[in-house]
Amino acid sequence: MSADANKLNSPQNGLGRHIVTFGRMIKFSHTIFALPFALAAVVLAHRQAPITLYSLIWILVAMVAARSAAMGFNRIVDARIDARNPRTAIREIPSGRLSRRAAIIFVAISAGIFVAAAAMLGKLCLLLSVPVLAVLCLYSYTKRFTWLAHIYLGFAISLAPLGAWIALTNSFYGPILLLSLALLTYIAGFDILYACQDTDFDRQEGLFSIPARFGIARALLTARAIHLLAWICLLLVGITFNLGLIYYGTTLCIGVLLIIEHRLVNPDDLSKIDIAFFNVNSTISVVLFLGILVDEILGLGKL
To answer: How many other C-beta atoms can be found within 10 angstroms of the C-beta atom of residue 271?
Structure first.
């Protein structure tokens, strides 16, 4: 057997393929949507508690593990529906690249890691970890009974900034809910855009979504209104936390990016949804985090 063949059949290469497969199942790259919001909450929370390497590492582990568990659970619950949808039939479980049993083990391990990471962050985080997992996993069933599933998804993911704040300060602080609300509306808005791709399929399967219930044109208008609310929430974050000119420049950039996102998608042409969904939205999240970080470091233009 050649050296190349040995390399392809090596345990290390097999492990690498499994890691990539699991990463694709949970769309690990999409972690970039919510994680920067959580890190932004950490930056703001440093005003009340010091940021340590220990806490930062466990916050990152908790965030990644929670999302992995929730996404894996969603893929398991939706596997049969995904298999009937031409757009999603290529996903790892419906296509047979990943077994249901392997996915269940992955979810169980991810959930365990999340609970363990929460325990490392304090008793309050540990007590909240199981309810948070329940909220995250419940999303997988919402599209079976309500077209408000997009809002629920936003709510579930919006726990990230609040969770990061509690993890660092071990306390609740009302104003951080503005950042959570910004994340809720930001996520809900682009999830509505994404759901437009499956409008006909959702109607055929009796699934609930805003595009399936009200049509694509109205869904796009709804997404625009929700994203306007997200942008207003970001402005209120700046006011509430007394942020400076750099942050407000950041919110202006985010407003422009949101306009670009909605100009990419129209009822007669959904071909650019993937660009709007991933490229633009991942940029928005990173820009927000960098804006808050740099503003806190430099402190320019504060009242």
So the answer is: 9
* CATH number, domain 28-298: 1.10.357.140
Distance CA 77, CA 96 (A): 15
HSE-up of residue 221 (Cα within 13 Å, Cβ side): 5
| pTM to 2 decimal places | 0.90
Of the candidates 234, 177, 179, 241, the one whose C-alpha atom is nearest the C-alpha of residue 48 is: 241
Q: Hey, which residues does 297 pair with through a beta bridge?
A: none
pLDDT band for position 109 (cuts 50, 70, 90): very high
Instruction: Dihedral sign for Cα 140, 145, 147, 152, please.
Output: negative
In whole angstroms, give the CA distance from residue 33 to residue 38.
10
Instruction: Give how far Cα 248 sits from Cα of 33, 39, 52, 253, 257, Å.
Output: 20, 18, 27, 9, 14
CB neighbour list of residue 60: distance below 8 Å, 6 or more residues apart: 35
Domain boundaries, the chain: 28-298
Give the contacts of 1 (CB within 8 A, at least 6 positions apart).
9
Cα distances (Å, whole numbers) of residue 166 to 44, 59, 118, 262, 274: 12, 10, 10, 34, 34
**Does 119 score more than 70 pLDDT?**
yes
User: Are 139 and 75 spatial neighbours (Cβ–Cβ below 8 Å)?
Assistant: no
